[in-house]
Write a structure and sequence with these properties.
This protein has 389 residues and is mainly α. Helices cover 80% and strands 0% of the residues. It has 19 helices and no strands. Helix 2 packs antiparallel against helix 8. The radius of gyration is 20 Å and the shape is globular.
């Protein structure tokens, strides 16, 4: 079975590689709120930290294509995974400074791995296959993100921080080994690309002049904002209100388990269209987020609320990139992709700035109101997507 997968480079190969490296991040994702609360404690200071990390990650996302002109993609991917290995080791030092460094290394790793892997995907998966390969890739990621957060919290609470950080670094090393095994066997899935990586800043103006490109950016920005919030602020709320660690674990892993439903939303979109499902999913998650921000709920109820909201976010995961994939001109696909993917870093930076400002005068729950407003804004803009989409 393994040899058959390797010999057929495509969505499954990239999905498997993505899942292995994601397991490294998923293991410590659930632990980060506990460590942030233990080391920093102040919610506004935590939000400010994520703002700084997001700003640096956004800057790095513009530098990586420049680095790709000097280094081959295999080295950029390897450097990214190396940062992913360093991050959990930095957490073991258990200080505010080391925790900050760990978050930054983790963010840089995501940027480097994501850009290099996406460029490989663009080279080796045909455009007509992208809309079906995305839900399949998410289903693979669902394995890592379903098991990882709960397993990480269990190991953290039972055996300590090292029991999470060492396996996290190990899975990062395994993903690097997986990548290099493919490369050493000269499989096309990770062969050197023939395209020169584009510079994002050269195409920002061109991107913004296309209404469909602007719409295509706003929708995944709202979805990515949900996930960056989901892994930090609901767990903080649950911890601060006396909720059990198991409640956080069940919410995080349960919400990520919904990724297995991504192929279902793909089939649903083929029957009813992409636009109505994107609108309904954004309204659903946005409304539940607003409820969480307005109604004072006990920890378990808040966990259930955000677990349900994750269903809408997964629908956006499955379909949110399709407006871009179907709207971008084939002759500038790589160039527009380099600008489009900045929604990932922007979803870390912009909401963190807003949360920092809101937390200066409002309680932690106010963050959920801001999140709901962003998702409802995404739904409002999604009305302008073509009906034929």
């Amino acid at each position: 079975m393994w040899l058959r997968v390797v010999d057929r480079p495509g969505a499954r190969v990239f999905g498997a590689l993505n899942a292995v490296e994601a397991f490294s991040r998923a293991l410590i994702a659930g632990v980060l709120p506990f460590e942030a609360e233990r080391l920093i404690q102040d919610a506004q200071a935590i939000s400010m930290l994520y703002t700084v990390v997001g700003a640096v990650a956004l800057g790095v996302s513009f530098l990586v294509p420049l680095v790709l002109r000097r280094l081959r993609r295999k080295w950029v991917f390897s450097i990214g995974v190396g940062c992913m290995m360093i991050a959990p080791m930095m957490m073991l030092l258990a200080s505010e400074a080391s925790f900050t460094a760990a978050l930054q290394f983790r963010a840089i790793a995501v940027v480097a791995v994501n850009i290099s892997l996406n460029l490989y995907i663009l080279d080796y998966i045909r455009k007509k296959e992208l809309s079906t390969s995305e839900p399949l890739r998410l289903a693979y990621l669902g394995i890592a993100w379903c098991i990882g957060p709960a397993a990480g919290i269990y190991l953290y609470k039972t055996f300590g921080l090292a029991a999470v950080c060492i396996p996290s670094a190990t899975f990062a090393a395994l993903s690097l080994g997986f990548f290099w095994v493919l490369r050493l066997q000269d499989h096309q899935a990770v062969a050197p690309a023939t395209r020169r990586p584009p510079m994002p800043w050269q195409y920002i103006g061109r991107f913004l002049r296309q209404p469909r490109m602007r719409l295509a950016w706003i929708i995944p920005f709202g979805r990515s904002t949900f996930w960056t919030t989901f892994f930090v602020y609901p767990p903080l709320y649950i911890i601060r209100n006396g909720g059990a660690d198991a409640t956080v674990a069940m919410m995080l892993s349960g919400g990520q388990a919904m990724l297995f439903a991504a192929p279902f939303f793909g089939r649903l979109s083929r029957r009813h269209g992409v636009r109505p499902i994107i609108i309904a999913a954004a309204v659903f998650s946005g409304t539940l987020s607003l409820v969480g921000g307005v109604v004072p709920l006990p920890p378990m109820a808040m966990a259930v609320l955000f677990f349900l909201a994750a269903i809408g976010a997964v629908a956006l995961d499955a379909l949110g990139n399709i407006p871009f994939l179907r709207s971008v001109h084939i002759y500038e696909r790589s160039e527009m992709t380099s600008v489009f993917r900045t929604y990932i870093e922007a979803s870390q930076l912009i909401p963190a700035l807003l949360f920092t400002a809101v937390l200066s005068f409002a309680p932690l729950q106010a963050v959920f109101v801001v999140l709901g407003a962003i998702l409802l804004m995404s739904a409002w803009f999604a009305r302008y997507l073509p009906k034929s989409l």
